[in-house]
Amino acid sequence: MRVITKGPEPSALRNYRAVPGAIYDGKDFTPVKVEIREALIRDQDALCCYCMRGFKVRPHRTDPDASPVAQMKVEHWRSQRHFPALQLAWTNLLGACLGGEGSPKNDQTCDTRKGEDAISLNPLDKSHVATLRCGSDGRLESTEPRFQEDIDKRLGLNHPILVSERKAWLKRAHDKLRAKHKGEFPLSAVRALSDALEEPARSVLQLWTRKRYGNS
Protein backbone atom coordinates (compact mmCIF):
# COMPACT_ATOMS: atom_id res chain seq x y z
CA MET A 1 0.00 0.00 0.00
CA ARG A 2 1.14 3.53 -0.70
CA VAL A 3 -0.24 7.01 -0.06
CA ILE A 4 -2.93 8.04 -2.53
CA THR A 5 -3.31 11.73 -3.30
CA LYS A 6 -6.76 12.58 -4.59
CA GLY A 7 -6.97 14.75 -7.66
CA PRO A 8 -9.86 17.08 -8.49
CA GLU A 9 -13.34 15.70 -7.95
CA PRO A 10 -15.07 14.86 -11.25
CA SER A 11 -17.52 17.64 -12.10
CA ALA A 12 -20.13 15.03 -13.03
CA LEU A 13 -20.03 13.64 -9.49
CA ARG A 14 -20.28 17.09 -7.93
CA ASN A 15 -23.27 17.99 -10.09
CA TYR A 16 -24.97 14.63 -9.51
CA ARG A 17 -24.56 14.94 -5.74
CA ALA A 18 -26.31 18.32 -5.81
CA VAL A 19 -29.52 16.71 -7.09
CA PRO A 20 -31.97 16.14 -4.20
CA GLY A 21 -32.23 12.46 -3.31
CA ALA A 22 -29.18 11.45 -5.35
CA ILE A 23 -27.79 8.01 -4.49
CA TYR A 24 -24.88 5.93 -5.74
CA ASP A 25 -25.91 3.84 -8.76
CA GLY A 26 -29.19 5.74 -8.93
CA LYS A 27 -30.95 7.14 -11.99
CA ASP A 28 -28.63 8.52 -14.70
CA PHE A 29 -25.56 7.50 -12.70
CA THR A 30 -23.79 5.47 -15.41
CA PRO A 31 -21.94 8.39 -17.09
CA VAL A 32 -21.04 9.75 -13.66
CA LYS A 33 -19.52 6.40 -12.72
CA VAL A 34 -17.45 6.41 -15.90
CA GLU A 35 -15.89 9.74 -14.86
CA ILE A 36 -15.32 8.46 -11.32
CA ARG A 37 -13.50 5.39 -12.60
CA GLU A 38 -11.35 7.47 -14.96
CA ALA A 39 -10.40 9.86 -12.14
CA LEU A 40 -9.54 6.99 -9.79
CA ILE A 41 -7.36 5.36 -12.44
CA ARG A 42 -5.61 8.70 -12.94
CA ASP A 43 -5.02 9.30 -9.23
CA GLN A 44 -3.84 5.76 -8.53
CA ASP A 45 -1.79 5.12 -11.67
CA ALA A 46 -4.17 2.23 -12.46
CA LEU A 47 -3.11 0.40 -9.27
CA CYS A 48 -5.35 -1.05 -6.57
CA CYS A 49 -5.66 1.22 -3.54
CA TYR A 50 -4.81 -1.67 -1.22
CA CYS A 51 -2.60 -4.35 -2.80
CA MET A 52 -1.14 -2.11 -5.57
CA ARG A 53 -1.74 -4.72 -8.26
CA GLY A 54 -2.37 -3.16 -11.65
CA PHE A 55 -5.91 -3.10 -12.99
CA LYS A 56 -6.37 -5.56 -15.82
CA VAL A 57 -7.98 -4.19 -18.96
CA ARG A 58 -10.33 -5.76 -21.48
CA PRO A 59 -11.67 -4.53 -24.83
CA HIS A 60 -14.90 -2.54 -24.76
CA ARG A 61 -17.82 -4.96 -25.00
CA THR A 62 -19.79 -3.11 -27.68
CA ASP A 63 -17.38 -0.68 -29.32
CA PRO A 64 -14.10 -2.21 -30.59
CA ASP A 65 -12.73 1.27 -31.29
CA ALA A 66 -13.32 2.52 -27.74
CA SER A 67 -10.63 2.65 -25.08
CA PRO A 68 -10.07 -0.59 -23.12
CA VAL A 69 -12.10 -0.96 -19.93
CA ALA A 70 -10.24 -1.41 -16.64
CA GLN A 71 -11.37 -4.36 -14.54
CA MET A 72 -11.73 -2.56 -11.23
CA LYS A 73 -14.23 -1.76 -8.52
CA VAL A 74 -15.18 1.59 -7.07
CA GLU A 75 -14.47 1.04 -3.38
CA HIS A 76 -16.35 2.90 -0.65
CA TRP A 77 -13.80 3.11 2.17
CA ARG A 78 -16.74 3.63 4.51
CA SER A 79 -19.48 1.30 3.30
CA GLN A 80 -22.62 2.59 1.63
CA ARG A 81 -24.79 0.56 3.99
CA HIS A 82 -23.37 1.87 7.24
CA PHE A 83 -22.38 5.36 6.05
CA PRO A 84 -25.02 6.40 3.46
CA ALA A 85 -24.12 10.07 3.85
CA LEU A 86 -20.67 9.29 2.39
CA GLN A 87 -21.81 7.23 -0.60
CA LEU A 88 -21.14 10.12 -3.02
CA ALA A 89 -18.23 11.73 -1.14
CA TRP A 90 -15.17 11.94 -3.39
CA THR A 91 -12.81 11.39 -0.45
CA ASN A 92 -14.61 8.11 0.35
CA LEU A 93 -14.16 6.63 -3.13
CA LEU A 94 -11.13 4.56 -4.15
CA GLY A 95 -10.24 2.23 -6.99
CA ALA A 96 -9.78 -1.41 -6.03
CA CYS A 97 -8.91 -4.60 -7.88
CA LEU A 98 -11.47 -7.40 -8.20
CA GLY A 99 -9.80 -9.13 -5.27
CA GLY A 100 -10.72 -12.70 -6.14
CA GLU A 101 -14.40 -11.93 -6.51
CA GLY A 102 -16.37 -15.17 -6.53
CA SER A 103 -13.65 -17.11 -4.70
CA PRO A 104 -13.89 -18.43 -1.12
CA LYS A 105 -13.30 -15.65 1.41
CA ASN A 106 -9.85 -16.99 2.35
CA ASP A 107 -8.78 -16.37 -1.24
CA GLN A 108 -10.32 -12.91 -1.44
CA THR A 109 -8.42 -9.67 -0.88
CA CYS A 110 -8.92 -5.93 -0.77
CA ASP A 111 -12.44 -4.50 -1.23
CA THR A 112 -13.97 -7.88 -2.06
CA ARG A 113 -12.79 -9.41 1.21
CA LYS A 114 -13.54 -6.28 3.23
CA GLY A 115 -17.17 -6.09 2.12
CA GLU A 116 -19.12 -3.85 4.48
CA ASP A 117 -16.65 -4.21 7.36
CA ALA A 118 -15.20 -1.02 8.79
CA ILE A 119 -11.43 -0.64 8.67
CA SER A 120 -9.06 1.85 10.27
CA LEU A 121 -6.25 1.79 7.69
CA ASN A 122 -6.81 4.51 5.11
CA PRO A 123 -4.50 4.82 2.07
CA LEU A 124 -5.36 8.53 1.88
CA ASP A 125 -3.78 9.16 5.29
CA LYS A 126 -0.01 9.64 5.22
CA SER A 127 0.32 8.90 8.92
CA HIS A 128 -1.37 5.53 8.41
CA VAL A 129 0.84 4.52 5.49
CA ALA A 130 3.92 5.69 7.41
CA THR A 131 3.38 2.79 9.83
CA LEU A 132 3.74 0.20 7.07
CA ARG A 133 6.81 -1.97 6.49
CA CYS A 134 7.69 -4.90 4.25
CA GLY A 135 10.16 -7.61 5.20
CA SER A 136 12.37 -9.50 2.77
CA ASP A 137 9.87 -12.33 3.10
CA GLY A 138 7.28 -10.14 1.37
CA ARG A 139 4.94 -9.81 4.33
CA LEU A 140 3.26 -6.45 4.90
CA GLU A 141 3.51 -5.17 8.46
CA SER A 142 2.33 -2.19 10.48
CA THR A 143 3.66 -0.81 13.73
CA GLU A 144 0.03 -0.10 14.67
CA PRO A 145 -1.84 -3.24 15.85
CA ARG A 146 -5.25 -2.12 14.57
CA PHE A 147 -3.81 -1.58 11.09
CA GLN A 148 -2.13 -4.98 11.20
CA GLU A 149 -5.50 -6.53 11.98
CA ASP A 150 -6.96 -4.81 8.91
CA ILE A 151 -4.06 -6.03 6.77
CA ASP A 152 -4.37 -9.65 7.85
CA LYS A 153 -8.05 -10.17 8.56
CA ARG A 154 -10.15 -7.64 6.67
CA LEU A 155 -8.06 -6.91 3.57
CA GLY A 156 -6.09 -10.14 3.18
CA LEU A 157 -2.98 -8.26 2.11
CA ASN A 158 -0.75 -11.08 3.33
CA HIS A 159 -2.43 -13.62 1.10
CA PRO A 160 0.29 -16.03 -0.14
CA ILE A 161 0.00 -14.76 -3.73
CA LEU A 162 0.50 -11.12 -2.71
CA VAL A 163 3.35 -12.03 -0.36
CA SER A 164 5.04 -14.00 -3.16
CA GLU A 165 4.74 -11.07 -5.57
CA ARG A 166 6.25 -8.60 -3.10
CA LYS A 167 9.05 -11.04 -2.29
CA ALA A 168 9.83 -11.42 -6.00
CA TRP A 169 9.94 -7.64 -6.54
CA LEU A 170 12.33 -7.30 -3.60
CA LYS A 171 14.56 -10.11 -4.83
CA ARG A 172 14.95 -8.45 -8.23
CA ALA A 173 15.77 -5.15 -6.55
CA HIS A 174 18.27 -6.77 -4.18
CA ASP A 175 19.93 -8.63 -7.06
CA LYS A 176 20.51 -5.29 -8.80
CA LEU A 177 22.00 -3.83 -5.63
CA ARG A 178 24.25 -6.86 -5.02
CA ALA A 179 25.65 -6.51 -8.53
CA LYS A 180 27.16 -3.18 -7.46
CA HIS A 181 27.60 -3.41 -3.70
CA LYS A 182 29.02 -6.02 -1.35
CA GLY A 183 27.70 -6.39 2.18
CA GLU A 184 25.28 -3.79 3.51
CA PHE A 185 23.57 -1.78 0.78
CA PRO A 186 24.24 1.96 1.08
CA LEU A 187 20.98 3.75 1.81
CA SER A 188 21.73 6.22 -0.98
CA ALA A 189 21.99 3.36 -3.48
CA VAL A 190 18.70 1.85 -2.31
CA ARG A 191 16.95 5.19 -2.67
CA ALA A 192 18.43 5.76 -6.12
CA LEU A 193 17.21 2.37 -7.28
CA SER A 194 13.79 3.00 -5.76
CA ASP A 195 13.49 6.24 -7.73
CA ALA A 196 14.32 4.36 -10.94
CA LEU A 197 11.79 1.57 -10.46
CA GLU A 198 8.22 1.58 -11.69
CA GLU A 199 5.23 0.96 -9.45
CA PRO A 200 4.41 -1.17 -7.60
CA ALA A 201 8.02 -2.36 -7.21
CA ARG A 202 9.06 1.15 -6.16
CA SER A 203 6.63 1.32 -3.25
CA VAL A 204 7.48 -2.22 -2.12
CA LEU A 205 11.20 -1.36 -2.01
CA GLN A 206 10.38 1.81 -0.07
CA LEU A 207 8.42 -0.24 2.47
CA TRP A 208 11.38 -2.62 2.82
CA THR A 209 13.76 0.34 3.18
CA ARG A 210 11.64 1.72 6.01
CA LYS A 211 11.85 -1.62 7.83
CA ARG A 212 15.58 -2.10 7.22
CA TYR A 213 16.83 1.45 7.77
CA GLY A 214 14.02 3.02 9.79
CA ASN A 215 12.70 6.47 8.90
CA SER A 216 16.17 7.92 8.30
Summarize the structure.
It comes from Polyangium spumosum. This is TIGR02646 family protein. The protein has 216 residues and is mainly alpha-helical.
Describe this structure in words.
By secondary structure, this protein is mainly alpha-helical. The protein folds into 2 domains: 1-108, no CATH class; 130-216, no CATH class. 38% of the residues lie in helices and 9% in strands. It is built from 8 helices and 6 strands; from the N terminus they run H-H-E-E-E-E-H-H-E-E-H-H-H-H. The strands form 3 sheets. A two-stranded antiparallel sheet has the order 1-2. Strand 5 and strand 6 (140-142) form a beta hairpin. Helix 6 crosses helix 8 (201-213) and helix 7 packs antiparallel against helix 8. The longest helix has 19 residues, at 160-178. It is elongated, with a radius of gyration of 19 Å. The protein starts with 10 loop residues before the first helix and ends with a helix.
Q: How are the elements arranged and paired?
A:
Blueprint: H1 11-17, H2 30-44, E1 56-58, E2 69-71, E3 73-76, E4 93-96, H3 110-114, H4 126-129, E5 132-134, E6 140-142, H5 145-154, H6 160-178, H7 187-196, H8 201-213
Antiparallel strand pairs: 1-2, 3-4, 5-6
Helix pairs in contact: 6-8, 7-8
Strand count, sense and barrel status of the largest sheet are: 2 strands, antiparallel
Q: Could you give the distance between the termini?
A: 20 Å
Low-confidence regions: none
By secondary-structure content and strand pairing, the structural class works out as mainly alpha
Mean pLDDT: 94
Q: Tally the helices: what do you get?
A: 8
- Shape designation: elongated
User: Per DSSP, what share of the residues sits in E-state strands of 2 or more residues?
Assistant: 5-15%
> Over all CA atoms, what is the radius of gyration?
19 Å
